[in-house]
Hints:
Blueprint: H1 3-22, H2 27-65
Helix pairs in contact: 1-2
Amino acid sequence: xxxxxxxxxxxxxxxxxxxxxxxxxxxxxxxxxxxxxxxxxxxxxxxxxxxxxxxxxxxxxxxxxxxx
Length: 68
């Protein structure tokens, strides 16, 4: 499994949780599901930032190794 596949799965999870919020039948359930959906989005953003930092780091190492 690639990092992009994990990110895609997390996007699906966050979207599914946000859809579940709309179906909440009580205020408490709505609050709980909203918190879970927001947590999923935060994890997604952190993972995307990590992926970006890894790509930048990899590019920098490649340029250094090439003598640029």
